[in-house]
Amino acid sequence: MRADASRAPESLGFIGTMKEHAPAAWPLSMTAIAYATGQPLEAMRAFLDSASGRHFADDVLNRLRLGLPLADAIRAAVHAWMTWRIDARTERRRGIPRGLPYLTGFVIDAEIGEEAAGWCDTDHTLL
């Protein structure tokens, strides 16, 4: 059930938050996040579609408002999220190992959530 709660409707994920910037921002973000985290592109999609992807988009938009071009705003957000570390509270609440870069942790978390969602049918019984 946690997997369903972590997945945001399109309007609440990266695309919905980025609005008119989404078509250009999506491939730039996919590439930058994959390069930084070393995770597969499917994990990037799961992350950007999640509530965490919305928070990442908020960070990118804040940097756009500061006057950065889109690609630079994405790179700066990726850098910040890779600098931040998962803390003890997040480890307890989400099960992401403490000390992991924030971006890596939430990308992996989103991918695991997607995989877990595929192991249950609509009434949440194991397949």
What best-fitting shape do the alpha-carbon axes yield? globular
Largest sheet, strands/sense/barrel: none
Rounded to the nearest angstrom, the distance between the terminal CA atoms is 14 Å
The string of secondary-structure elements, in order, is HHHHHHHH
**Count of separate DSSP helical elements:** 8
Oligomeric state of shown chains? single chain
Report Rg: 15 Å
Helix content: 55-70%
Tags for this model:
69% helix, 8 helices, disordered C terminus, mainly alpha, 127 residues
Would you mind describing this structure in some detail?
It is a single chain. With 127 residues, the protein is mainly alpha-helical. The chain has one domain. Helix content is 69%, strand content 0%. It contains 8 helices and no strands. The protein has helices spanning 2-6, 14-18, 22-37, 41-49, 51-65, 70-83, 88-94, 102-118. The longest helix is centred in the C-terminal third of the chain and has 17 residues, at 102-118. The radius of gyration is 15 Å and the shape is globular. It starts with a helix and ends in a 9-residue tail after the last helix. Residues 1-8 and 119-127 have low confidence and may be disordered.
Summed up:
The protein has 127 residues and is mainly α.
Question: What is the fold's blueprint, element by element?
Answer:
Blueprint: H1 2-6, H2 14-18, H3 22-37, H4 41-49, H5 51-65, H6 70-83, H7 88-94, H8 102-118
Helix pairs in contact: 3-4, 3-6, 4-5, 4-8, 5-6
